[in-house]
Each structure stands twice: as structure tokens, then as C-alpha cells.
Protein: SDR family oxidoreductase
Amino acid sequence: MARTSVVTGSASGIGKATRELLELRGERVIGVDVHDAEVVADLSDAAGRTALVEGVRRLSGGRIDAVYAVAGLAAPTPATVAVNFFGTLATLEGLRSLLSGSRAPRAVLVSSMAALLPSDEDLVALLGICDEPAALARAEILAKEPETTGALIYASTKLALSRWVRRQAATPQWAGAGIPLNAVAPGIIATPMTAELIATEQGREALLKMVPMPLNGIAESAVVAKLLAWLGGEENTHVCGQIVYVDGGSDVVLRGDSVW
Ligand SMILES: NC(=O)c1ccc[n+]([C@@H]2O[C@H](COP(=O)([O-])OP(=O)(O)OC[C@H]3O[C@@H](n4cnc5c(N)ncnc54)[C@H](O)[C@@H]3O)[C@@H](O)[C@H]2O)c1
Structure:
């Protein structure tokens, strides 16, 4: 029987490329997004997160094989905290029980190499204890200076997501239930999220200084989609709690000998 996969952020960029690749491989995809999706849901709030779980339950008949949590924002605003961190957790935790009927259940989220860039310690700590009201309040303060402190919000959400994967993957709920839980950490990918930043040579150069990509430079969404599809596919039986960098080498350049 064809696999049924849920892809959030399916209307654009990496989510759209993932959806297209899975469909090409004969899978059924239930897309989730704020527009142009089977389940239209806003993952920034409780009502949208409930709509996601109910919508997927209804459309799938209660059994899915993989969850790809891709939806995200990069704006220096509290909404980025709500969608990137709490929306992603709500997706994975809310849909986990629907994976129990699959013979090869899988879960993958999209973090970022930005987890290696400067972040806000207080915000990361609040995300570490999953305190959404306090995290949103902290982001509100950071957002007052969009260019400086606001810019730390995105990296903080991705660092916290990567840590969440590490903390959760080996637990009874995930590994113990036979579900590999992993993340990908892309470098710069050409999507609507980065379009403005990489539209000019000057913009590209400035971004590549921060995110060096010696191997093949800025990538297309399909590059990330192929890795996601492998981590979320049947072949992946033993990759557990990994943050797989698909970043043209930025992790290597920035972290060097830090092998873990
Ligand atoms: N593009 C990059 O360079 C890059 C690098 C590293 C990580 N990422 C991550 O990859 C993921 C996908 O980003 P992308 O580059 O494809 O961006 P994108 O803007 O093209 O797509 C993001 C999708 O998420 C959806 N989304 C946003 N807010 C939502 C909400 N509240 N509820 C439901 N859906 C919502 C959007 O509607 C959109 O379809 C994000 O998590 C992003 O942080 C992107």
C-alpha cells in the first residue's frame, strides 16, 4: 500500500518540493499550510494546531506513515517562535499517535544551520522548557530591535528545535515506538523565504559570508527534499536523533573539529 505522508509548509519552497518528490514516488501527501493545502491551518496558535490534527485524522482515516514538519518563518517577530518551535512540536506530538498503525513510521523536522549562529540564551532556555507564553514575551522584547536582537529569534528557534530532537529521539515515545525522529539543517536554499536576500550579487555575497557554502553554493529546494524523503522513508531504520546538515559545508567551515 502506498505510504501516506503529512507535509507542513507544503504550499511553498522546501515543503512544496518535498510534497512533489513524495507524490512522484507514488505516495499520498496530506499538505498542511495557511493556503493551498488539503488542511488549511495556522500553526502559530492553538486553534490552528488543533485544526491540523483533526484535519489530518479525518483525511487519513487515522493512519499515516510519515510526518515532515517543514513550515517555518524567518521574520524577526514572536510569530517565528510560535510557528517554528511550538507549531513544529504540535505537529510532531499531535500526529504521533496516527503513526502507530504504520509498519514503517517516520518523523522529520526542518531545523537550520542557523542553529550555529548567535542566538538569545534566555529565549533558548524558555524554549527548552516549552514555556510558550514566556518565550513569546521574550521574543516581543527581542523584536523591538529587528536588526540586532530581533535577528537572534530565528536562530534561537532552530537551536532549540535541534536540541529537542536530541532530547526526544531516544525516548519510549519515539525510538521506543519504532519511530526514527530526525532533523535536517539546511544552509541557504533558494526559496521565497530567501528570495529577497539572494536577489542581488551583493546580497548573496553578504549571506554567504555568514553561511559559507564551499560545496556547490546556494541550493535548490529539491536538494533538501531528497534528504527529507530518505529520513522519512522506509529505508531509514536506524538513523536516530540526528541533525543532518545539508549546507554545502557551512557546518564544517564554522565548527571544524567539533565532530558531534
Ligand atoms: N530557505 C532557506 O534558506 C532555509 C534554510 C534553513 C532552514 N529553512 C527552513 O525550511 C523550512 C521551509 O522554509 P522555506 O525556505 O521553504 O520557506 P517558504 O517561505 O518558501 O515556505 C514556508 C511555508 O511555511 C508556511 N507557513 C508559514 N507560517 C505558517 C503557519 N503559521 N502555519 C502553517 N504554515 C505556515 C508558509 O505558508 C510557506 O508555505 C522553514 O522551517 C525554514 O526555517 C529554510
Notes: Residues 9, 11-15, 33-34, 42-44, 70-74, 83, 110, 112, 186, 188-189, 191-194 surround nicotinamide-adenine-dinucleotide (CB under 6 Å).
